[in-house]
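Section 4.2 – Deliverable D4.2 (structural model, holo form)

The reporting period included a commitment to supply a predicted holo structure for the target in complex with zinc ion. Inputs used:
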Amino acid sequence: MTDCIFCKIINGEIPSKKVYENDFVFAFDDINPKAKVHTLVVPKVHVESLNELEDEKIMAEILKGVKEVAKIKGVKSYRLQVNTGKAEGQEVMHLHFHVLSNTVERKEN
Ligand code: 5GP
Ligand code: ZN
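Output (structure tokens):
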């Protein structure tokens, strides 16, 4: 998607603080963090929201990506937020899982 901010972050057109990446997902720190750890996990394919996600492989990979992010950030306790649809606060129309935590157990390098 040419005018999608998160597609541009994934392909490097827009810089971001990358946390984790594999063939299916990309994770980067939120530009406007609402907790000590606030990382977004997104599928590399452009999917508008959870409502449009059909591919079960991608569903699984997103959750695996979330767990990788938690490990990398040193948090065992965290919460997920997935705003789905503009009426419930989704501003960027590329599916993303917010990983949020204020209980960081170890400092990042
Ligand atoms: P939403 O409200 O759609 O669930 O969340 C979108 C999130 O994307 C917000 O928390 C916002 O701060 C973040 N965001 C928007 N634009 C950018 C950007 O260009 N870079 C990064 N790293 N985060 C962004
Ligand atoms: Zn996109």
